[in-house]
Amino acid sequence: MADAIEMPPALQDAVPRLKKFLQEHGWPEEVAFVGEEELIWAGDYFWVRLRKAAHENARESYDNARRRGLGVALNAVCTDSVSTYAHIYIPQDDRDRQEHMLAVNCLKLSVPLRRSHARSVRNPALWAALCLLHRRSHGYVTNFLR
Predict the structure, then answer these.
(1) What pLDDT sits at residue 84?
(2) Pick the residue with more confidence: 111 or 43?
(3) What is the Cα Rg of the chain in Å?
């Protein structure tokens, strides 16, 4: 009888692991999940769009990644004085999984060697203006998260 391959833990079980990992690396333990579309690189810091639906979107993304069986990574991206902003990385296919050194059905936690700071935005009009001002930074954010 073949052994069943375990799935990564559910997000509610993975978050305490991430918090402990962050603490061990000197990052704030408070975690806010952000997607690529909620980050703007401004040259030496990130603008982060804070949205109420962010945690629910993160849970859905994480659950989809678990079902795919290719592994999932919780990556710290940037921080302000209170929170760590983390991104859920989901490999596109098996080759992508291997390039990111994810084992099948594993949970990978990471923080960058160089800490980037964050400035948060809640105002939709300000966010729209920042998107126009920094529209070239999207490619950088996409590459940074992959």
Answers:
(1) 97
(2) 111
(3) 16
**Number of structural domains found in the chain:** 1
Domain holding 56, by residue range, is 11-141
Is residue 138 very low, low, confident or very high in pLDDT (cuts 50, 70, 90)?
A: low
Confidence of residue 118 (pLDDT cuts 50, 70, 90): very high
| Residue 93 belongs to some domain of the structure | yes
Q: Which of 72, 79, 90 is nearest to 36 (CA)?
A: 90
Looking at the chain, which runs of residues are DSSP E strands?
30-33, 39-41, 45-49, 72-79, 83-89, 107-110, 117-121
- Is residue 123 situated within a structural domain? yes
Tally the residues of the chain: 146
Answer whether 28's CB lies under 8 Å from 84's CB: yes
